[in-house]
Design goal:
This protein has about 500 residues and is α+β, with helices and mostly antiparallel strands. The protein folds into three domains: about 220 residues, Thrombin, subunit H, CATH 2.40.10; about 100 residues, Pdz3 Domain (Roll), CATH 2.30.42.10; about 90 residues, PDZ domain (Pdz3 Domain, Roll). Helix content is about 20%, strand content about 30%. The strands form five sheets. Strands 23, 24, 25, 26, 27, 28 and 29 form a seven-stranded antiparallel sheet that branches. Strands 1-4-5-8-7-6 form a six-stranded antiparallel β-barrel. A six-stranded antiparallel beta barrel has the order 9-10-11-14-13-12. Strand 12 and strand 13 form a beta hairpin. The protein is elongated, with a radius of gyration of 36 Å. The N and C termini lie far apart (about 140 Å).
Length: about 500
């Protein structure tokens, strides 16, 4: 019996000892887990991650450069608003160049951006953001929301002004876009893809960018600032700013390949033009824009040579509109506008953009190149409503219409051009008295390079009216080794000047 009791006690002692061992082991294992195996690998608890110092120590200039972006983002972002629109907009097929307007055609809703330009709630944005709007609302950076009224729109520049009922707003500072340089750093601020208050950076990659076909009107003004700062749907109407925080442009369009999203280039309307349009819209609800009343074209190398210009410069007057502002002066087709108000002009859109910032009744001074001389003319701008419909007038020498010209043709192999005399029906159809008809243009020829094509009528050569093929042949033969200026007209009555270099 005694032995049994001792055996039981001994068994209990072993059980307690075993339990104690298990408890100690458990505590040690838990400690190891909690300490991250520090007891097993004590050196790893104090390991340092990463290098001790950055690889580059920014100097004062680099630090200041980075700080400029930060400060601009902080100071300008509150002046940029988000615009939500319910409109009658229909889905349209996107071209290569596209307005970055985020539209949802199923709900006829869209969004864009705007720039606060006055303390009492005037906001500038794009026309294509608010056109046909039934309801416009504005969201501020402090999360307040307002219903907005459309004050006025200007489709010819794709600008609009809206207003909210608010006070003590902080307007953006509007800079001087005329001082922009290619390569200059800029930032785009807006609300792309419904991402509120987004800032991107890049450079001005080109200025005076036109002929994008964004504004479907012959009077449309396309004189965009091109930038590689990322602009996407929803950025429309937002600000393009320089590193001083000055707004230099209103973001308007992007280059795209059918997706409607950014692929490398964005376009902004110069703020100088936007400021002028905004003033008119706020004052009267419409733009009282002045017009010279001329059709203009670019001066290429061949045209410059044919006119005796030292180099391609200025813009050539293709035609003068009846009863327009220019018609009251002695301006005529073939004149080259070199300057306006002492500003050099080398592209048609440069002249259009400058004139678009002037109101009807303003007097402008034009420096004109004519017959080898530079002359000065003053023109009082008229409103578009005062201009007559553009109907090119071709002045021809009087001729005996009873004598029917022979149906002769001529080929000029060295320039790739074949012409024939006009029939009476062609004269009637084209509303001209004389000239020759282009019947063939060889591919990759000099004539083809100048966009001449079959069906164009040549009505002038070397500033002289031509009656038939013989007249044209004589003039071309007399201009061997020189450049020849032609005036051509299409079946719709549109005229333009073409320069052709005639081989020796």
């Amino acid at each position: 019996m005694l032995n049994e009791i001792k055996s039981l006690q001994k068994g209990k002692m072993k059980g307690l000892f075993g339990a104690a061992v298990l408890l100690i082991v458990g505590m040690l294992f838990g400690a190891i887990l909690v300490s991250g195996f520090g007891l097993v690998r004590p050196g790893f608890a104090d390991v340092e991650l990463g290098a001790n110092t950055p690889p580059v120590n920014l100097d004062a200039d680099a630090t200041a450069f980075s700080k400029a972006f930060i400060e601009v983002a902080e100071k300008v972002t509150p002046a940029i608003v988000q615009i939500a629109v319910v409109s009658e907009r229909e889905t349209s097929q996107r071209d290569f160049f596209s307005f970055p307007f985020r539209d949802m055609p199923q709900e006829q809703r869209g969004s864009g951006s705007g720039i606060i330009i006055s303390e009492d709630g005037y906001i500038i944005t794009n026309n294509h953001v608010v056109e046909n709007a039934n309801r416009v609302s504005v969201g501020l950076s402090d999360k307040r929301n307002f219903t907005a009224t459309v004050i006025g729109t200007d489709p010819l520049t794709d600008l609009a002004v809206i207003k909210i009922d608010a006070d003590n707003l902080v307007p953006a500072y509007l800079g001087d876009s005329d001082n922009l340089k290619v390569g200059q750093w800029v930032m785009a601020i807006g609300n792309p893809l419904a991402l509120v208050s987004t800032v991107t950076a890049g450079i001005v990659s080109a200025i005076g960018r036109g002929q994008l076909g964004l504004i479907r009107d012959s009077y449309g003004v396309e004189n965009f600032i091109q930038t590689d700062a990322v602009i996407n749907p929803g950025n429309s109407g937002g600000a393009l700013v320089d590193l001083s925080g000055a707004v230099v442009g209103v973001n308007s369009a992007i280059a795209t390949r059918g997706t409607g999203t950014y692929i490398g280039y964005g376009f902004a309307i110069p703020i100088n033009l936007a400021r002028s349009v905004a003033k008119d819209l706020i004052a009267t609800g419409r733009v009282n824009r002045g017009y010279i009343g001329v059709n203009i074209g670019e001066v290429d190398n061949a045209i410059a040579k044919s006119l005796g210009l030292d180099r391609p410069r200025g813009v050539i007057i293709q035609g003068v509109l009846p009863d327009g502002a220019a018609a009251s002066t002695d301006l005529k087709s073939g004149d080259v506008i070199l300057k306006i108000d002492s500003r050099e002009i080398n592209q048609p859109n440069e002249l259009q953009s400058y004139i678009a910032s002037k109101t009807a009744g303003t007097t402008v001074t034009l420096d004109i190149f004519r017959d080898g001389k530079e002359i000065e003319r003053k023109v009082i701008l008229k409103s578009r409503d005062d201009d007559s419909k553009s109907e090119p007038v071709v002045k021809m020498e009087s001729r005996d219409k009873t004598a029917e010209p022979k149906q002769t043709t001529a080929s000029f192999e060295d320039i790739g051009l074949t012409v024939k005399n006009l029939t009476e029906k062609e004269k009637t159809d084209y509303k001209i008295d004389a000239g020759v008809m282009i019947t063939e243009v060889k591919s990759f020829s000099k004539a083809d390079d100048q966009r001449l094509f079959r069906g164009l009528a040549i009505v002038e050569a070397d500033r002289k009216s031509i009656k038939d093929v013989d007249d044209l042949s004589k003039i071309i033969n007399s201009k061997k080794g020189e450049a020849l200026l032609l005036k051509v007209q299409d079946s719709s009555g549109n005229t333009r000047f073409v320069g052709l270099e005639i081989p020796q």
